[in-house]
Amino acid sequence: MVVVAVLLASAAALLWTGPDRETARLLSLIRADDEMRWRFAVRVLRFARRPSRAREAAAWRMASIELCQGLVAELATGRTPGEALSRAVSCLEPPDPGVLRPVVAVARDGGDVATALERAAPDHGGEGLSRLAACWRISLTVGGGLAALIERVGVSLREAEAHRSEVASQLAGPRSTARLLAGLPVLGLLLAAGLGLRPLSFLFGGPAGFACLGAGVLLDLTGVWWTNRLVARAQRPGP
């Protein structure tokens, strides 16, 4: 029984995190009349995965930290803010390089860099660019040292990112457990199919099956969404 449980858990893990090649191999082992049903189940599992938006936000946060560090270094050499920003951006590798091109153009033309930074800041992960825009505006308004302001922003961004990394490492275990629990219905379907019970015929064969399928998928996706929400809230730095 232990060996069977391990094999079934491995199959569920492949469905949950495996690459597309493994999914295609799994589908090739299933009868042709059940292929569309299993494709539907695989798509549901992919939809329940952690969205790539979180990875993109993390990449933008790291790019903002590097931009602050580069700006401080360029300003320390005596360059003007516009030149420093242009050189710092040229050394970056952001998720979307085209987002910062208008900022560089405005900096070279001597325009409103703060407004350009605010417009370029993405909705997710753009906190650093928004704070940098505030530093730029404060420096122009009250005449404060731009390098000192950007350095403080960089320090706060690094501390916030360190907090997120620490919390993420502490929540890795609970998050993996939640994902495993979310994949247990698939494990149950595989086990039932292995016993010859044909659960897919029931789920797709009538109103009662569709109702059970809809309720199960809804509850499963709700659990995954709620878990991701709790993790995201826990990763937010304190005030």
Plain-language structure description:
With 239 residues, the chain is mainly alpha-helical. The chain has two domains: 2-47 and 171-235, no CATH class; 54-156. 78% of the residues lie in helices and 0% in strands. It has helices spanning 2-17, 20-28, 35-47, 53-76, 81-90, 101-109, 113-120, 127-142, 146-170, 172-182, 184-194, 199-203, 207-235. Helix 4 crosses helix 5 (81-90). Residues 1-9, 11-20, 29-33 and 47-51 have low confidence and may be disordered.
Provide keyphrases for this structure.
elongated; mainly alpha; 13 helices
Ordered list of secondary-structure elements with their pairings:
Elements: H1 2-17, H2 20-28, H3 35-47, H4 53-76, H5 81-90, H6 101-109, H7 113-120, H8 127-142, H9 146-170, H10 172-182, H11 184-194, H12 199-203, H13 207-235
Q: Secondary-structure element order, as H and E? A: HHHHHHHHHHHHH
What is the helix fraction of residues, given as a range? Answer: over 70%
Return Rg in Å.
Answer: 25 Å
End-to-end separation: 50 Å
Low-confidence stretches: 1-9, 11-20, 29-33, 47-51
**Helix/strand class:** mainly alpha
How many individual β-strands? 0
Tell me, briefly, the overall form: elongated
Average predicted confidence as pLDDT: 77
The structural domain count equals 2
Main sheet specs = none
Compute the number of helices.
13
Strand content: under 5%
